[in-house]
Design goal:
- There is one protein chain.
- By secondary structure, the chain is mainly β.
- 10% of the residues lie in helices and 26% in strands.
- The longest helix is centred in the first third of the chain and has 16 residues, at 8-23.
- The protein is globular.
C-alpha cells in the first residue's frame, strides 16, 4: 500500500487537472443535445383555416413575414415544410379567406412571404402562423410586433417529430 504525501505541488496539480477535466465537459453529466420543440402559443390558432393555398404573396404586399423551421433535437433545417400565415391587415380581417396564404421553406429551412401591412386587432399588432404538415406535431404561433409601424415580423419553429 502506497501512502502519498499531500504537498502543495500535488494539490495544485490535482486542482488543475480537475479544472481542465470539468472545462472539457468530461465531468458534466450527459444531456440530450439540441433544441427543444416550440410550444403552441395561446391564441395562435384563432381564425385558422386548414388548407390555405400556397401563394407568392397575400394581397398587395408591403409587409414581410419571415422565419425558420428546424427539427427539435439536432436543429437541422427542414426544407419543403408548409407554413400557413394569416393576419388582420390593411386589406382584410384574419378571418377572411383572402387574408390567408401558405409558403414553403427553402433548402435552409427559411420562409418568407409578402403580405399587406399588419394592423392592430384587439389592441395588438400580431400575426398568425401554423405548421400543420406530416411527420411533425402541429404548432400555432401568434407573435406580437414591437410596433404597429414595423414592416416585418419573424417567427421561428422548432418541430417535434411524431
Amino acid at each position: 500500500m502506497t501512502i502519498s504525501k499531500l504537498t502543495r505541488r500535488t494539490l495544485v496539480t490535482t486542482g488543475a487537472a480537475a479544472l481542465v477535466t470539468t472545462a472539457s465537459g468530461l465531468m458534466v453529466p450527459a444531456r440530450a443535445a439540441g433544441l427543444a420543440p416550440t410550444p403552441t402559443m395561446r391564441g395562435g390558432s384563432n381564425n385558422y383555416r386548414p388548407g390555405a393555398p400556397i401563394v407568392d404573396r397575400i394581397g398587395g404586399g408591403g409587409f414581410w413575414m419571415t422565419g425558420t423551421v428546424r427539427r427539435a433535437g439536432d436543429g437541422a433545417p427542414l426544407p419543403g415544410q408548409r407554413i400557413q400565415i394569416w393576419a388582420h391587415t390593411t386589406e382584410g380581417h384574419e378571418r377572411d379567406w383572402h387574408s390567408h396564404g401558405a409558403t414553403l421553406t427553402n433548402a435552409k429551412g427559411e420562409f418568407r412571404l409578402e403580405m399587406p401591412q399588419i394592423v392592430p386587432a384587439f389592441g395588438q399588432a400580431h400575426g398568425h402562423l401554423a405548421f400543420d404538415g406530416d411527420g411533425f406535431e402541429t404548432v400555432f404561433l401568434r407573435p406580437l410586433m414591437a410596433s404597429a409601424r414595423d414592416t416585418s415580423l419573424s417567427a421561428h419553429f422548432v418541430l417535434q417529430p411524431v
